[in-house]
Amino acid sequence: MQWYKSKAGIFLLKVAGIYLLWYFIYELWLLPNGTLDQWVTTNIVSVSAGILEILGYDFYATGRLIGLGESAGIYLVNGCSGISAIGLFIGFVVAYPGAWIPRTAFIFIGIGIIYLVNIIRIIVLTITQVQAPEMFAVTHDYSTTAIFYVVIFVLWMVWANFGDGARAAGSSHETA
Q1: pTM of the complete model
Q2: Nearest to 49, CA basis, from 34, 36, 64, 70
Q3: Distance from C-alpha of 151 to C-alpha of 153, rounded to nearest angstrom
């Protein structure tokens, strides 16, 4: 049996196809246009600033720029919005079997979780820039990216194991 005819192979081909479609839509249309990234990044800066205010930090925020005290701050460019991570997450959920109503609800929940993770990421980067500037590049380039992929993997595992209650309940019954 060829690998691509197995359930796992079909799933992987669906994920790859959906992600490639999303990648081309995002990279060739949405990212160059910038409108969606502009809206999301300014929103992330605004929410991050509100959280920094609650935490008692002396911050500044304007448009896509956020910083602490007299620091240079960090500027969220197109691509820092988490939109590509959301596309990857949606690809995994859509490719895996399940009913569309719970799938759609889970996609919205997952988008919210990824959005919140990105806000936490921006807050951590803003604080790291001042508190541990030598760690900023590592934090930006590696740890926050890894966190996105871990969150996406955990969300997908939740969907795969609990996402479609009817399917999961039907597969747990043993036949006599």
Answers
A1: 0.84
A2: 64
A3: 5
